[in-house]
Specification:
About 25% of the residues lie in helices and about 35% in strands. It is α+β, with helices and mostly antiparallel strands. The protein has 2 domains: about 80 residues, no CATH class; about 60 residues, Signal recognition particle alu RNA binding heterodimer, srp9/1 (2-Layer Sandwich). The strands form 3 sheets. A 4-stranded antiparallel beta sheet has the order 3-4-5-6. A 4-stranded antiparallel beta sheet has the order 7-8-9-10. The termini are far apart.
Length: about 160
């Protein structure tokens, strides 16, 4: 999608999408151009509209929807696109490795203490997952997990046993 607004060309094919937020009907996407201009695409469910945004408006949009972005990705966005030089926080810094599925999957399951957030790291790229997703992952990979009983007892104490 392309549109010229106030003598500036906004082109979704050449811009980088920063975040996409879906709604019941439609949604919004935040983009940044190579010239560091921000804009959103608002989808009403019927049509799409390009709306130029200031850096502050883009940052406000990102902050409102920060829960839609993985913590590590959120910090990277702040650093790269907004010049906020926060230390990049890797959620796995304080996490405990629970289990791993070896080659060819290269997946490792982590859990943070005390919040009990689970992360599945594929090729060292952590993704926040729910406890249910973590348990499903363990079920699929149970033959490769060392000390399966210990993992279940510590991290999934409410699991029913036959």
């Amino acid at each position: 999608m392309k549109k010229i607004i106030n003598s500036v060309l906004y082109d979704t094919e050449k811009a980088q999408k920063i975040i996409e937020v879906s709604a019941l009907i439609g949604g919004r996407k935040l983009y940044i151009t190579i010239n560091r201009n921000f804009f959103t695409i608002e989808n009403s469910g019927i049509s799409e509209t390009i709306i130029p945004s200031s850096k502050q408006e883009a940052l406000d949009f990102l902050m409102i929807h920060r829960d839609k972005v993985e913590p590590l990705r959120f910090t990277q966005i702040l650093n790269v696109h907004f010049g906020l030089n926060e230390k990049v926080h890797n959620p796995l810094d304080k996490a405990i490795k629970i289990a791993e599925a070896a080659f060819p999957k290269n997946e490792v399951l982590f859990c943070t203490q005390p919040g009990r957030q689970f992360y599945l790291s594929k090729n060292e790229n952590p993704v926040l997952i729910t406890q249910g997703e973590a348990l499903n992952w363990i079920e699929k990979n149970q033959n490769e997990i060392q000390d399966l009983d210990k993992v279940l007892k510590i991290y999934f104490p409410t699991i029913k046993r036959a």
